[in-house]
Design a protein that fits this description.
With 410 residues, this protein is α+β, with helices and mostly antiparallel strands. The chain has 2 domains: 289 residues, Zn peptidases (Aminopeptidase, 3-Layer(aba) Sandwich); 113 residues, Alpha-Beta Plaits (2-Layer Sandwich). The protein is 33% helix and 22% strand. The protein is built from 11 helices and 16 strands. The strands form 3 sheets. Strands 1, 2, 3, 4, 5, 6, 14, 15 and 16 form a 9-stranded mixed β-sheet that branches. Strands 7, 9, 10, 12 and 13 form a 5-stranded antiparallel β-sheet that branches. The longest helix is centred in the last third of the chain and has 21 residues. The protein starts with a helix and ends in a 5-residue tail after the last helix. Bound molecules: (2S)-amino(hydroxy)ethanoic acid and manganese (II) ion (2 copies). One manganese (II) ion binds next to loops. The site of one manganese (II) ion has 6 residues, from loops.
Length: 410
Amino acid sequence: MNLGEIVFNKLQELGKITSSEEGVTRFFLTKEHKKANKLLKTWMEDAGLKVKVDNVGNIVGEYRSAFENAPTLVMGSHQDTVKNGGKYDGALGIVLPIVVFKDFIKKVKTLPYNFKIIGFGDEEGGRFGTIYLGSKAVVGTFDYELLNEIDDDGVRLKEALENFGVEGNKIEESKIKEKVDGYLEVHIEQGPVLEDANIPVGIVKGIVGCHIYNFTFEGMAGHAGTVPMDLRKDAGVGVCSTVVEIEKYVSTVDDLVATIGKIDFSPYSINVIPGKATFTLDIRSSNDEIIIDSIQKIKKIAQNIATRRGLKLDIQNINKASSCNCDESITKILEKSILSVKNIDINPFYLYSGAGHDAQELKKITNIGMLFVRCKEGISHNPKESITPEDIEVASNVLTEFLKLYPNNN
Ligand code: HGY
Ligand code: MN
Ligand code: MN
């Protein structure tokens, strides 16, 4: 079996660890997370890495170089998924480096650099809403306020960490102590560009900024049959009108996308006028100024509707991830690696990431690079997410060349 097939088969195995029938659902600090860490641990140890689980549930496999003052290269991605997601978003970026490292170290015996592979416990924010909890802890931007975040069952992050068996009050110990010289993340593209260009892998030039907000409208719950339309303070209609106006406005702005992913009415009964209604807004652009400017306009749209309908409005920011560029110290080595791979004739192809990644957090402490792998019809965050062993083989060969070249690109 070649590396691509080995990685592909392991991803099928990891993809079976899910709490949902449809697609893969693996949330932060759940029994599925625990099972995934256990499986990743066996694979990391089998590759000769020293493994630990840190105080926020990340799994970390480490190789220490025999060379004095060796630089440190970190790779990784997230092991958690969205609800009913695919098998490859995140997982590819953990399993592929493990398999390639195992094969590579057998051949070269030692590396002139320290090497870590991290399976971040939470990137999607599927359980607690806040994204990048795993990588925030590793780079040292984890805010202890986050321990009070609660999930849909009312469980606080603090308790969830304790139940998982890690010391949530010592999260600072997860911060990487040594200087990190570079971070490389392999990830499925989650878009159609590579497929359209008919190329198996691409180099990421930058990652969009992404802000997440929670909007809450409060009106008056009432009887669905007795309250005349003009006397209602219907929070549900307030939300729906705002969502339609947001979509209309955002569609007129270049380099901007917005998604209303969650919507909720309360008391959520057929014959009760919703007294309270909420929705989440995920808004992204490669240009942070566009996000900031559009949020101001969207807040005005929402406030005008709330005022007209006699509703109270509250808007909370949940997360702000800035857009960022990848660094030449990594992308130039990726270029060279792609050109060095034998038996394929592809040129370095650059593209932008409309998805957010842990690399955005790592950007705060080191130089970053990402290698994208083509995925079928660009489908992701969907059980239909799919990639081929052949494309994984190409990405594995590129990574092998990268490990040969790092930290130089000559
Ligand atoms: O939402 C994203 O872009 C990523 O999948 N967390
Ligand atoms: Mn994702
Ligand atoms: Mn991802």
